[in-house]
Amino acid sequence: MNDTALLSQAETHARPPVSSAPRWDVESVLALFELPFADLLFLAQEALRKHFDPNAVQRSSLLSIKTGNCSEDCGYCSQSKRYQTGLETQRLLSTEEVLAAAKAAKEQGAGRFCMGAAWRGPKEKDLPAVMEMVRAVKALGLETCVTLGILKDGQAEQLKEAGLDYYNHNLDTAPEFYGDVVTTHTYQDRLDTLRNVREAGLKVCSGGIVGMGESRRHRAGLIAKLANLDPPPESVPINNLVPIPGTPLANSDPIDIFEFARTIAAARITMPRSYVRLSAGREQMSESEQALCFLAGANSMFYGDHLLTTSNPQTPLDNTLFDKLGLHGI
Ligand code: SAM
Ligand code: DTB
Ligand code: SF4
């Protein structure tokens, strides 16, 4: 497919879905990855500028509300109880602790507050406490997001009733590679949760991780899967693997920054109306590398000095970068 044809596929995609047929096949996404870099970034900028203020960056702050001791074996994760990562575990925080962190995030300028729990999924007894946190954070005037793992029938509806805006649940990689990274739950489990979340009327945040030893075709496969969700996620986090000593992926080769930027650009072009988030791994990137990701169409990021169990650039550093680039936060 030539550039014009690829862009016209992007434009078709931008219209409200008329059928549930896949709109992006893996080959077409691969063709985007294989464009000359400047051509790819040009298409990404065109897609961004059609739907967004290109200099506005959505900012979400993260808090781990329950840390470590997780039953699952996700090969990238510091929080699995199967790996010796030296992580200090923490039971579910109180609403007061969460509220204090949310207030601080709001003061720094975050627009959304995302609460993450190291669960395979929440137990029925856990949900009332999380619902209380959601109500309290929303009352501050922040958008709310939680990431709690696999949801059982009815749980997404309960979270919606509490006023939750977004549910984060990443597909993480292509279906063909998922089994190399996680064996304790399946890709289909994750798709089922995303369907439950959508049916409950919540907004979807779903993306993935690159740099886990996957191929370019796998990266294209992840993007195609996300773009073909009907409708696509409102928010698409693209994480660069943060290697955690003690996990199976501790020694993965870092991904080349241009390949990372290509993944962001492919997400931008195939999901033109979604916020594409430059997510984990920013601390390992220079200012210029981050700027490249914004040029590739990222218009969202994690803001605040920590992610879940690892660190993120300090707020003053991010504010300086925004000043240098003429970006403003929302
Ligand atoms: N337990 C829930 C789940 O797995 O859905 C929610 C928390 S989990 C830590 C949320 C997401 O963080 C994962 O799906 C993965 O995409 C991302 N993540 C976890 N560890 C990471 C790492 N070391 N580097 C990059 N991203 C990571
Ligand atoms: C997402 O895609 N990335 C965030 C959030 N959603 C929950 C988590 C990143 C975690 C990075 C490793 C850590 O801090 O444990
Ligand atoms: Fe548990 Fe989530 Fe980490 Fe997997 S990614 S081990 S489910 S906390």
UniProtKB/TrEMBL annotation:
Residues 1-11 have a biased composition (Polar residues). [2Fe-2S] cluster binds at C114, C145, C205, R277. The gene is bioB. Belongs to the radical SAM superfamily. Biotin synthase family. Its cofactor is [2Fe-2S] cluster; [4Fe-4S] cluster. HAMAP family: BioB. Pathway: Cofactor biosynthesis; biotin biosynthesis; biotin from 7,8-diaminononanoate: step 2/2. It comes from the Bacteria. It comes from Candidatus Competibacter phosphatis. This is Biotin synthase.
